[in-house]
Amino acid sequence: MAATATEAADTAPEAVTVIGLGDMGSAIARTFIERGYRTTVWNRTAGKAAPLAGAGASVAATAAEAAAASPLVVVCLLDTAAVEQVLASLGDAVQGRVLVNLTSGSPAQARDHARWAGEHGAAGYIDGKIMGDPPYVGTPNIMFPFSGSEQAFRAHEPALKELGTVAYHGEDAGAAAVEFMAQVAVGYELLIGFLHTLRLVRAEGVDAEEFAGRVAASMAGYPPLLESMAKAVKTSEYGPDLGSLNVQAALMGDMISHRESLGVEAVRMREVKRLMDRRIADGHGDQGFSSLFELLPPRA
Ligand code: NDP
Asked: At 249, which CATH number?
C-alpha cells in the first residue's frame, strides 16, 4: 500500500543546513550526511563543498539559499567577524529557522547573535561551543555545551546529539560560551603548570613520560576535591582541605626553593605562598586551600 503524504513526511529524513566548511564545519556536515540527514551546505570558497557533495550533500549557491533549505541551520565559521558577515547576507532566509551557531566567541557576542536572530524572525537561536577536535565529531568524546532557546534546543536535540556529548546550560545565549571559557581556562592553567613541572622533572633526570603516567593515575583523586572546594566556596565554610594553611605554607617554601635551585619557574608557587601568608596573617591558618578564594579578585 502506498504511504500517505503524512506518513511520508513522518519518515522523511530531517533536513539540516551547515554553513561554513572548514575542518570543523566539514566534520559536522559529514556526520549529518552519514547519519541520514538531508544536508545542505554552503562555504565561501566553493571548492570545499565538493567532497561533501560527493558524499550526498546538496550544495547551495549562497548562504541565504542554504539557510532557506532547512529548519535547522548550523553555522560554524572562523570567528564572530565571519559570522556577522554571513548573517548580514541572509536577509529573510532565517525566518522560521532555528539558528545554531557553533563558532567560537564570547558570551556577549552570543547574546548579540541571539538578539539578531530574534529581530530577523528566526524560530530560535542556540549558541554552541565545541570542546574537542574535528576527528571526534560524531563520537561521545567531543563536548558541545549549548544555551539559548530551550524550546528550539529540545526540538532539535536528537540532531545535535549526533555531533557528540551535548549539555544544555539554560536560556541565556551566553551561557555556553561562559562554560567554554571557564572549562578551557581550567585546562590551560593546569597544562602550563604541568609543562613547568616537566622542566623540574627533566632537570632532576626523571623520565617525563613515566612521570606523566603517574600524574594521570593520581588525577583520580581530583574530582571529589573539586566538588568539595566548590562547596566550600559556595558556603564560605572552609575546612582544612589539603591540610591547614599553617602546614601548607611551610611546604610551599620548600617547593619554591627546590624549583629555584633548578632554575625552574616558580611564579605560581610564589602566588600561592603569598596568598597563604596573607590568609594566615588574617587569622585563618587553620583553614584549607579553598579559603584562598576569599583573597581572589573580584571580591564581592
Ligand atoms: P577553518 O579555518 O578550518 O575554517 C574556517 C571557516 O570559516 C571556513 O569555512 C572559512 O571559509 C570560513 N570563513 C572565514 N572567514 C569568513 C568570512 N569572512 N565569510 C565567510 N566565511 C568565512 O576553522 P575550523 O573549521 O577549524 O573552525 C571553525 C570554528 O570551530 C572556529 O570558531 C573554531 O574556533 C571552532 N573550533 C575548532 C576546532 C578545531 O580543532 N578545528 C576545535 C574547537 C572549536 P573559506 O573556506 O572560504 O576560507
From this structure: 1.10.1040.10
